[in-house]
Amino acid sequence: MATTNHTGTQTAAVVPNPGPNAQCEIRHDIPIPTPDPDQVLVKLTHSGICHSDVHSIYNETPMETDIAGHEGVGIVVKLGSSASQHVKVGDRVGIKWQWSVCGTCAACAVDETACPNQNNSGRNVRGCFAQYQAAPAKDVTLLPPLNEDGNAADGLSSELLAPLLCAGLSMYSSISKANLSPGQWLVLPGAGGGLGHLGVQIAKAKGYKVIAIDSGKAKRKLCVDEFGADAFLDFKTDDIEAEVLKLTDGVGAHAVVVGVGSTAAYELAFKLVRRLGTLVCVGIPRTNFHLPVSPFEMIVRSLRVVGSSCGTRESMSELLELAKEGKVRAKVEVRELDAINDVVKGLANFEIGGRVVLRIPE
Ligand SMILES: [Zn+2]
Ligand SMILES: [Zn+2]
């Protein structure tokens, strides 16, 4: 078990064999990592669980490690010998999908989210479904400190911040890539889901008009009553294409940000966007799915298609500001780490609204 000097072994949810319907095993014999000189050791308290963790655990996207998770929040408990210029022991930090970027390549010079040399938490380095994780000091996200009593200011508790590290950041970045102006129309398929419900709040904070697409009364209430979406369309009962056109003077929305890994959402998206409009891909459908659009259609309608993965550290700071102002708040259900297999199954079946955050045992 973990000791107070943070050495020895720890508890983690391990995936021995990533593959279809793979199960995680809660194990207590995983060595606590020793931070390299440029790294910090983080004792995690919470870890959000993302649809892309399901893709990793089921090996639908390649998983080269045995612990998933990339929305980790915890406290720095140990510093590598050269890590002290970025953070100090006791800081509350977040560990994101982009566990590290090289900072020196051509992509990093423009937008580090496209770094070909990046390492990813839960893909090729051990992820956050564990008590401890080491990460480069320069790449962890400094979070607002906890109060002296160990509690957080309203809206800034660790379980509420965890989903911002991937779901929130991914939506912040992808909505930014749509290049909208206040008052313009944005369609958000999957608006009641883990990414979508944060997207609605981010888009409204920026003054865009939001058409939320999802299904059921609960998600309608969440999107419209709670987060202020301008319209809600139910994909099970509404003619989405006709309704979007009706709402947008017959020409379609300025942008569609697909934050859900559904091929149906991508198929529909091109019918919802106007000429000169933008489609942003951020939700991951099965990897052999191709966008249903021809160069001819792209040319005639002057469409723009952009991919977006995570977000930059600048986007993360801007998103944390929105959280501090109370404009973005994740809808969270907290479960214990040992419920992970249940949650993975629920995500795989698209049964989970908002975000599940796993509490890591102390
Ligand atoms: Zn994620
Ligand atoms: Zn790079």
TrEMBL record:
Domain Enoyl reductase (ER) span(s) in chain numbering: 19-358
Cofactor requirements of the protein: Zn(2+)
Superkingdom of origin organism: Eukaryota
GO CC, alphabetical: cytoplasm
PROSITE patterns per record: ADH_ZINC (PS00059)
SMART domains: PKS_ER
UniProt keyword list: Metal-binding, NAD, Oxidoreductase, Zinc
GO terms, molecular function: alcohol dehydrogenase (NAD+) activity; zinc ion binding
Chain segments annotated as transmembrane: none
InterPro entries, alphabetized: ADH-like_C, ADH-like_N, ADH_Zn_CS, ER, GroES-like_sf, NAD(P)-bd_dom_sf
PANTHER family the record matches: ALCOHOL DEHYDROGENASE 1-RELATED (PTHR42940), DEHYDROGENASE FAMILY OXIDOREDUCTASE, PUTATIVE (JCVI)-RELATED (PTHR42940:SF2)
Family stated for the protein in its record: Belongs to the zinc-containing alcohol dehydrogenase family.
Protein name (database record): Alcohol dehydrogenase
Organism: Cyphellophora attinorum
